[in-house]
Specification:
Length: 305
């Protein structure tokens, strides 16, 4: 188990403060690169839509943030409920709901660890967990999985999109290590060194960094695969674990803070990196690249027994 210097209460408080303060800006940043988002996300969108969509069915979106994934399924006719800790994020989600004039989606502001889900017992066909689990203390993940198990119908499906890591990362092969070294060096030069030394950041990004913004909330870290398996063992079958983004997503997020011309160029590079990620995941296992603090974004499909 990861060592923690703070209490779980403090962890959740820090998360809430961070998302209330910066969540809106992060959501805004994603609106700056629509074509890039489409390129990076369309494969996975087809995959989660096939897996989770059920005509007239119901879907729970946990850690729903600004609600864009809830909206995706609501627009396809599912009854959707989204839950998130941050009131600011829930406000953004409700704005989106109004914009699309949808009645079949609702949002609730609540810490999911404390969430009273009794009224939803076996109420959902599907659950979407996108980039949420890695914001929860490791020793509370079982609580989240137990809640998901209790609100899902038997045979119900769960799609996770989370950064994963191996509990005891191996070394990979000499080839995967070489690929990793070169790839990491390239990404570091382009996403960190060049923007800093060439002054490529835009004014709004600089202002947000000055008021404390970083691309990560204070305690987030990849979820260990073994911990995930342990949380699933009583109620879920793991159908698939698949690497989705190695360096491309982080690179894309860096590009969102750049001035317009640089952003356009970096967006094109990010798409190339996405294809590089896909090649890497075909040639090697995602876990060959696992390192303690590295975010390798994976999709995981689960089925409720
Ligand atoms: C990275 S965002 C993901 C948002 C959305 N699912 C997406 O994929 O864009 C993580 C979200 O988890 C929420 N969150 C963090 N801890 C939470 C908790 N204990 N209960 C509910 N939501 C939480 C944050 O407020 C934030 O909106």
């Amino acid at each position: 188990m990861t060592e923690k210097a703070i209490t779980n209460e403090q962890w959740h408080e820090d998360e809430k403060v961070w998302w209330n303060k910066y969540g809106h800006y992060m959501t805004f940043q994603w609106t700056l690169t629509p074509e890039l988002n489409e390129a990076l996300r369309s494969d996975m969108r087809d995959d989660y839509t096939d897996f989770l969509h059920k005509p007239s069915g119901s879907l729970l979106d946990i850690g729903c943030g600004g609600g864009w994934l809830s909206m995706h399924f609501a627009m396809k006719g599912m009854n959707v409920h989204g839950v998130d800790l941050s009131q600011e994020q829930i406000n953004d989600a409700n704005v989106l709901k109004e914009k699309h004039s949808l009645q079949n989606v609702s949002f609730e502001c609540c810490d999911l660890v404390q969430w009273d889900c009794q009224k939803f017992e076996q109420g959902f066909d599907s659950v979407f967990v996108s980039a949420f689990l890695h914001h929860v203390p490791e020793d509370e993940l079982q609580i989240i999985f137990d809640k998901i198990a209790s609100v899902l119908k038997p045979g119900g499906r769960v799609y996770l999109y989370e950064p994963l890591c191996e509990s005891a990362p191996g070394q990979g092969s000499p080839i995967s290590r070489g690929v990793d070294f070169l790839y990491k060096a390239f990404v570091y030069v382009f996403s960190t060194l060049l923007p800093k030394h060439l002054g490529l950041y835009n004014e709004e990004y600089i202002q947000n960094v000055e008021r404390g913004y970083q691309m990560c909330s204070p305690h987030e870290r990849p979820v260990e695969l073994d911990v995930l398996k342990k949380c699933c063992r009583d109620s879920f079958d793991i159908i698939e674990v698949k690497g989705r983004h190695l360096f491309s997503l982080g690179f894309a997020m860096h590009s969102m803070g750049l001035k317009e011309t640089a952003r356009a160029i970096y967006s094109k590079i990010a798409v190339v990196l996405y294809w590089a990620d896909k090649c890497v995941f075909r040639l090697f296992r995602w876990s060959d690249f696992s390192q303690p603090k590295r975010f390798i974004l994976c999709s995981v499909k689960l089925k409720r027994r």
